[in-house]
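pasting Nuclear condensin complex subunit 3 C-terminal domain-containing protein for the record, 981 residues
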Amino acid sequence: MAVLADQEAGWDELRRCIDLLLCAPQASGAHCANIYTERAVRFLATFSAVRQAGREVEGDTLVEDVLSYLLSLAQAADKGVRQRVCQVLAAALAQQAELSPEVAEELEAALLARLRDKVPAVRAEAAKALSVFADPGMGGDFADCAVCEGLLALLQAEKNKDVRKAVLAALPVARGSVPLAEFVERTRDISDEVRRMVFLVARDKLPLAALAKEQAVVLVRRGLADRTPAVAKAASSLLAAWFAALKADVALEPSATRERGRMRDGMCEGGDAAMLPADVEEEGGVPAGPSPPRAPAPDLVAPELEPLLVLLGALGPEQHEAEAEAALRALIASGALDPRELAHAGGPQGGLRRGLDAALLGPAEALLWRVLAEWLQARRGIIGVLFPEAGAARGRAAAAASGAAAAVEAADAGDALAALEALLPESVEGLMGLVRAHAASPGSCFAARQLLALAGTCADLADASGRRAASELLQVLLGFGLSAAPEGRAWAHAVLALARQVHTRRADMVGALADALACCLPQDGSAAAGSEELWQHRLGLAAMLLEQLPPPRARQAQSMVGTLPGDIANLHTTLLAPALEHHSAAVRAGAVRCIGLACLLGEPGARHQTLAVPAARHTRARWLAECGLPALRTGLLLDGNPEVSAAAVAALCDLALLWGPRALDQLSAHPLEPSAASAAGHDAAADPDGAAAAAAAAALPATAAPALAAAALPAARRALAAAPKPARSAAPRLLRYVLQLLQEGGPPQGTAAGESDPAGPTPEGLDPGPCEALAEAALAEALACPPGPAARPYAAALVQLAAGLPLVGRGCQGKVKRLRELAARAAAKLGSGPAGREAAALAARLQALDATPAQGLDADALAALVAAVEAHAAQGVLPFGDAGAAEPGTASRRGGAASRAARQECDTSASSNEDESESEEEVAGSSASEAAPPARATPPLRSSRQRTGARGAVAASAQKTRAARPVRGSRAAGAENVPST
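structre below
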């Protein structure tokens, strides 16, 4: 060559060409590269790699001179020159077999320095050039490699996505290497282009054998589930490359690959516990006897399935079932697998058609047959309910097609049907027998669950023999170890899938589950006992039963709950409460989960719903407050086991979404405690006496209902007197809590559990007399409250107390008529607000209890009632004073001196009318002062005649003052602000 013949002239010419190449303009964008410049760079790299025969030494010298010249320009001031130098070095070094140590060290140091260049394009080209200098070291893990250290540091701190892509392409990834972990972690990069680059590099550089199981699982999980279609497609191409490589290995070494696949698949050694124990000694199980020994059968795995089973075995189907299934479906979607061909690969004696005395399926093979069967079943287009994303769409497409398209769809469905028939056993009995054989064998619980899911999806139970075989298998599965440790809830869901096929009606399925659970519980109603496996079996059945029960307000709820056995009604006492004290954390976690499911039954708005499963004689709110929430909070805060805490957190979050956090706090803690009051928006610290009175009332047990009813109103008055302002007192909250205590409990003695009463339930053992007396006193005190905003909350609480008390009405009808009259007067006084409507509803309820609703109180009884109310008001025990004297908009705010004079004249005339009964009021006032603490005087409740006289005096005074209206703003002498009545 001319360059080698005349080195000096040739070198000068080559250097001039290199200078022109380095000074070529850069592309304006990432996708606008200059094609001529790129060709020149590739030519220079190829030219430097050529060695003329017989003159290799001169060629090496020329290459080193070119590289040294480029190295001298690596720190040029122009960023374009630096980028082009690194680009030419990367292209030239990729084709060099070897370099002298001195030149290699200089190039490595210069390129490492360019990794810190301020221009991203220079850093990217330097990273590409450094890939040839990676040194694995003695250990082969690149732990002491300076190039890997620099690339990893750049990858972790780099913000430019193009630089990160270049670093990923340059990183040396091998099994057990240090950069491999960071390489896999880049599957979570923020840029979809970087994530895609990870899978493309792995497809070209990383065989499946170079990855650990967890790393391969991470690549499959994150790649196939990526939100960007391009990344998911790259992950599918990675799986296809792995599968193609495994097929090539099987073609080269079939025997070695088959043995390796069987070892990975777990065919030789089973590590799982038996799903169905050989001999059940505990109660609730039927002895099945030991399983017969199985003779070693020949290998029934077709050679076409070997690479696929090796791939699934490398992913660990037992530990990572979702990832292995996603990999299978991705291979089918990409066209790398044809389920029709694989369905026929098993042969007449292989796959699912093997005999019951043949070798059992391994985990990977069982998963493979399930996925293939489900895909073929969906391809037929007849199970849109089970596979709405595939089956229904396929069915609609076949129905809407016409002509040639319809023929194609029909042929495709026919091929899928033929392949499915070739894959499944000849009869449903054979499939159920295969499931039963795997479920009874140690180490085959995963395969049994896959076959069980396949049976629940693809089995045709139209004929009586197949349905009978499925029903018998379901009874066996419900009677043995349902929730074994390796499978847990996944096995329960598979059993439920088969149960839905056998029992098409929910009531039948609930009845079957209830019967199976009743057989496992003690028949005498005592607490359950047994081994840990039996406890888990019972709790698994209980969880399945609670999940299938409809809400109490559903149409079929009452009939379904009424058919449950008696042992199920006391489930909390016989099973859940003892399970919370078990030494095993798995048992406690199962109990907490069952309690959470029981708490979710029903709706929060139902007041008198009875939860038949946890407690038949408790209201829903009381069971939640006394049993459900304490158990969940104990499991969360005091148990200490992560499994139990996780179950408690899940249950509490579900309840919070259904009921609301504040409702849960009111149920689980006393609503009148300072913390609860603060949460409700009240300042409990400003009312210590009221909070203390509320706490004292809350300490009374529910059995002391008569004493509680007698002490309610005095405690409320003390709370009113102790508060700095009546509106901030704890009296309304105290009355509401007293009502809550009196409402809780079962039906009264001598009343059937299902008997309903229009007046509401009466606490057990509580005489209706105290409740009726408390209701009458509360209504009388509500009528005695003065008008105004200060007394309105207390009056409303009194009416709510009277309306919520259990009033039976079986006693004297005179009490009912008195309460009815008081409720009607309270409704008229309180108006159309919530308290007025509550009083009107109480009056209507009392009218329903009245035997003679058309007849009211006679004149004497009505006069006695009015006198009693007036006497109650005359005691002056309510400390409102003039706080409720005048409401906004009355004459006191717009009448000036005339209104004040009218009110003064009104009070004078009213006081003259009251002089006749002064002696009686003095006696009543003296007795009231002895029985109650001092309080501000409240105007008494006048009779109708006195109120009429007062209104007449006000009208006459107003007529007098209108004749001589004073000047606006003037103040009448001696006029005072007297509270109006």
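The longest helix spans residues 229-252.
DSSP finds 45 helices and no strands in the chain.
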